[in-house]
Structures are given as structure tokens and as C-alpha cells.
Request: fold
Amino acid sequence: MLSYPNTPAIRQIGLVLFWLAMVFAVTMALLPHPPALPIDSLGDKFEHSLAFATLTVLGTFAFPAMPRWRLVERLSFLGALIEVVQSVPELHRDCDIRDWVADTLAIVAATLVLMVWREMSRKCVSNTDSFD
Reply:
């Protein structure tokens, strides 16, 4: 059955994983010469999408009381901020608004999937309660 866990243990695990993932994503985005990863062959936009979809999922579990739109806003702002910092010439990185768009689309898509999952989970729980 689908479930949408919201326990203190899940929140703590979510918090730790969220912050680790955020530090990893920001570090990789700002390193002048990031190490090669197996997913590099899938393209830059895929990497952006994967990073921000992951942050969205982890953020949902780390901050269950935060309104979803606020999480979307803050993660999208993080993506924009990364792009601005990448414009610093000494970093030898490219500032590309399309990267921020990819980040934001991934955040919105992951949020929508999680909202559907949560609604389906609630309906499943309410349907099983009616059989008792």
C-alpha cells in the first residue's frame, strides 16, 4: 500500500539527507572543475533535474509542516542563486538561465508527484478504515 510517512524518525532522516544532498549539489555546482560522474553522459539538464527533484523529495520529508509552495519557492531560489554565483569569472562556470528553468521544472514536477502520492495514500487509508 502507498504511504506517506510522517514520523519524527523520518523527519530526522529527511533532515540529515536533505542537508547532505544540498551541500553536495551546491559544492558540485560551484567547483571550478567538478569530478566526472556516471550520469555526466545524460547531460547537464538531467543532472540539474535529478539534483533538484531529490532535494524536493528530501525536503518534503525533512520539513513536513512547510507549505509545498514555500519549499518550491525556496528550492527554486537556491537554483537561481547557484546560477548567479556561477557567473563569477574565477569559478570558470557558466551561468545559464535554462539550468534554473530545469531546476524549477524538476521541483514542480516532484512536488506534483508527491502531492498525488499523498492524496492517493490518504484515500487508501480512508478506504481501509471504512472496512473495519
